[in-house]
Amino acid sequence: MHPEGPLAAYTALEKEGEIRADDDQRRVLEYFERLYGDLKDYPEVGDKSGGLALKNWRFSRLFQWSGKDRKPPRGLYVYGGVGRGKSMIMDLFYEIAPVKAKRRVHFHEFMLDVHARLKEWRSLSGKERAARGGRASEDDPIPPVARQLAAEATLLCFDEMQITDIADAMVIARLFKEMMECGVVVVATSNRPPNDLYKDGLNRQLFLPFIDKLNADFDVITLNGPTDYRYDRLKGVDTYYTPVNSETTAKLSEAFFRLTDRDVENRDKVPSDELTVQGRKLFVPKAARGVAVFSFKRLCANPLGSADYLAIARAYHTVIMVAIPQLSKEKRNEAKRFVTFIDALYEHGVKFLCSAEVAPEELYPAGDGSFEFERTVSRLMEMQSEDYLARGHGIEA
User: Fold this and answer.
1) Structural domain that includes position 315
2) What is the pLDDT of residues 96-106, one digit of tens each?
């Protein structure tokens, strides 16, 4: 049984020692409390086909629900510095939100999904489009894709909303408009205020109406308290442990529990996770509060690639890797994967803790690509620095 409402759930976590009391977070939670109440009797999605019937059903239900003086709930857009608890608060709300049809997704992953759906719709014949509830002549893919998404989730929660790509910028404004007309309620977190989205981007003037819509239709809330909890938890914690033994493994385990505010004694309660990468499932052995744990063998001895590593870098602000061996020329494939993995983490500002048999400069002394591996050594050294640890997730150097 969850406590009734986000504020009650937050108070319960305080009492359990899972989080620290924070007045700035409580102020933001007042908005989530309002949205929680608004969603209690809000009409759920009924047409799973994603077809035209959905739009008519939504409008009729919304009309009955709203009467003359009620509108669909306002969305929430929470922005502020890294490590202030934006994702934690949104996840707390998402877990107890009184809606069955809901989706919580990293914004970049959502946009990859959207572009794949747009491409698929364009490839359909008129007969196939009609079979999916669309119009045979509906060449514009955005309205039917918006209906598909609305059919799957009444509540959409986006983590780390940022627009850096012109293709995303051109799609998102119209997509949001269509989804919200179908009654979808949106919650988003971001490091940037709406007015700074897609800043200095190509043809940004075409994106400005979307910014105006965010400011008009969402409660825009700042969460910028004095404490960067991520960086605060990393202070005094070593990030690179040698050699690989029970002592360094125990230290990494302690670091994980410190970073996630979890009780060291409750190791069995740490959940696993799963990422979807190009239609495949990538298993994450341990994950909590944006921190993931992998073995070197799982990520680098198996045939994974840049898409897998990018998905990890986008999904988690901190990654712990256990048991990195000294690599020989016979393990050049493992070395190449490790290079790609570290590049993905570095470019996304992901914090990296690990245990390794030897120091970074001794990891791959000879073999194909050993010269290129020197850049990885340099990055591993930089990723231990205070400047790097203070970087925000997803923010390039």
Assistant:
1) 229-389
2) 999 999 999 88
Whether residue 357 sits in one domain with residue 236? yes
Q: Which of 376, 364, 299 shows the shortest CA–CA distance to 328?
A: 364
Distance, in Å, from the CA atom of 379 to the CA atom of 383, rounded to the nearest integer, reads 6
Task: Give the CATH number for residue 203.
Answer: 3.40.50.300
By the 10 Å C-beta count (0-12 exposed, 13-18 middle, 19+ buried), 130 is classed as middle
The amino acid sitting at 89 is I
Tokens of 98: 């009184």
164 shares its domain with 65: yes
Amino acid of residue 330:
E
**Do the domain assignments include residue 378?**
yes
The pLDDT, as a whole number, for residue 243 is 95
Taking Cα atoms as reference points, which of 184, 156, 146 lies closest to residue 50? 146
Residues in contact with 272: Cβ distance below 8 Å, sequence separation at least 6, in sequence order: 283, 284, 285, 286, 287
* Confidence at 48, pLDDT banded by 50, 70, 90: very low
Is residue 322, in this structure, part of any structural domain at all?
yes
